[in-house]
Amino acid sequence: MSAIRRRWRFTGTVQGVGFRYYARAAALHLGLTGWVANNWDGSVTLEAQGERATLDALVPLIERSNRWARIENVEVTPLPVKEHEYGFEERSGE
To answer: Which of 25, 50, 73, 90 has a CA-to-CA distance to 31 between 20 and 30 Å?
Structure first.
């Protein structure tokens, strides 16, 4: 199997509710690499890479683990895989 990469942009109640913390925890639990960051407009961007089935499990796991966040809309964009990315980080802002 080969890795793929996706970018998600979440809108709704996703800032100030631990969204980045839970997203990072979920990604690490699933063995994904990438990052998550708040945006100036109140949205959150998340980029992750791994196997397709694992990426498919990421958003549902975030939703189950964070009862305070309310995702109203998600935009998903496929991206090229980044070589030599070894961890998952929580960034302060994009």
So the answer is: 73
